[in-house]
Amino acid sequence: MVSAAALTLLCATPTFAGFATSVSYSGPTGSGQGASLVSPPASALGDVNTAYQVWNESSGTLASSVTLENNGAVGSYSGVSPGTSTTLGAGTAYGTTFVQLNPGVNATFHAGEAIIQFSSKIIGIALSGMTGGVPGSLDKTDIYGAPGTVYPTGYNNPNNNRGIIGKNNQTFTITNGGTELEVNLTANFDGFKELRVFTSGSATGVPEPASIAIWSLAGTFFAGRGWWRRRQR
């Protein structure tokens, strides 16, 4: 029984903090609405889809401090009431996940609700694009995007600045102790909406305690196996 359990643990994928683990959808589907966890695209702006597109970006430690409009506290928020801002200091261990609605529809497009589960707690959300010529939190944190993906940094349309700040038809809720995000967004007339979620994480390559436990048990298994072979001889 011990060896079987150890082998099961050995086959398990080590768990690392900081990323979305699943995406589900609740809402209308008549206009192609939905939600998917996808691979990072070559171009965020070029990734047109009537469903929410969610992709994991990068993890490690912040090179410099970043200020975000929401601090990850459990609650319900909107573009008008985004919550309490937070500044993550340089050296903070993080993971980033991008949430995008880019339907390419020349009308008001209600996307329904996407539910995103994370492997660790949300510690901040970037919600603003370029406003009045001033870069928002999305622009400033594009450096923590997915390697190889081109982001609309500096996109400056006064009617649609990629973020949701100031918009009352953009809502999101943080639940499940801070490890679940529910978003309900609307895109207007070929517009698009984006959020970047920062979650707590280990520096790249450093396993979480669950992974350490797995490998510790694996070591115990092999040690016991060696003892059994010596006993048989």
Structure keywords:
disordered C terminus; five-stranded antiparallel sheet; disordered N terminus; 16% helix; five-stranded mixed sheet; 233 residues; alpha+beta; 2 domains; globular
| Model regions low in confidence, pLDDT < 50 over at least 5 residues | 1-16, 203-231
Mass-distribution shape: globular
> Strand sequence of the main sheet, in spatial order?
1-8-11-10-5
What is the averaged pLDDT score? 84
Number of domains: 2
Biggest sheet architecture: 5 strands, antiparallel
What would your notes on this structure say?
By secondary structure, the chain is of the alpha+beta class. The protein folds into two domains: 1-16 and 208-233; 17-206, no CATH class. Helices cover 16% and strands 35% of the residues. The chain has three helices and twelve strands; from the N terminus they run H-E-E-E-E-E-E-E-E-E-H-E-E-E-H. It has helices at residues 2-11, 137-140, 209-232; strands at residues 20-26, 35-37, 49-61, 66-68, 75-78, 86-88, 93-102, 108-118, 122-126, 171-175, 180-188, 193-200. The strands form three sheets. The chain has a five-stranded antiparallel sheet, with no helix packed on it. A hairpin with a 4-residue loop joins strand 10 (171-175) and strand 11 (180-188). The radius of gyration is 21 Å and the shape is globular. The model is unreliable at 1-16 and 203-231 (pLDDT under 50).
